[in-house]
Amino acid sequence: MPVSSDFGFRHAFESGGAPALLLLHGTGGDETDLVPLARHVAPGSAILSPRGNVSENGLPRFFRRFAEGVFDLEDVARRADELAAFIADATAAYDLSKPVAIGFSNGANIAAAMMLRHPQALAGAALIRAQPTLTPGTLPDLGGVPVLMLAGERDPIVSAYDCSGLAATLEAAGAEVRLETLPAGHSLTQLDVDILKDWLARLTLV
Q1: pTM of the model
Q2: Pick from 136, 71, 82: nearest CA to 105
Q3: Active-site residue, from 25, 49, 155, 192
Q4: Does the active-site annotation cover 155?
Q5: Catalytic one among 186, 187, 192, 198?
Q6: CATH topology of domain 3-204
Q7: pLDDT in tens, 155-164
Q8: Where in this chain does the entry annotate a coiled-coil region (predicted)?
Q9: Of 30, 74, 122, 205, which residue has the fewest beta carbons closer than 10 angstroms?
């Protein structure tokens, strides 16, 4: 898969059909991590997969944090803006439709933050083990944007309560949210994969 450092992010790109998928890895991942998952759940889709620009002791992330679950909110906002600009530039250059994000953990959190600051950036999002970061004073209009949230009932990092809080915020902004709490921890499971594949197959984009 070709890799480029254009548009402000080192990223992998693979051409294909719709929906185009934006892959956002978790802490310590890179642009290759979620590619096999994407090929499995939506074979033939175009893939755009950036590596987070923040390094935490050498581990790539999409924004800084002070401790587990304690985020640098100014950095979250700035990095969300950077990612939205990357998506706009990359989709234009690669002639892609507005992408659907698949984000895991830190990648899911930056996707959610970006949706709340740039509601036109994504056609939809699958947020796996996501939690709230930014909560704007005035909610954007996410009317009709499909969002799948997959939480783990035994997740030691992201509580089901946090996932529900983020789901409520996105719903209040008008997103069509489906929240599933799975018998799982923080790691991706086969059940996550099966639900994600089914959700993508049934996806109707606005």
Answers
A1: 0.96
A2: 71
A3: 155
A4: yes
A5: 186
A6: Rossmann fold (3.40.50)
A7: 999 998 899 9
A8: none
A9: 74
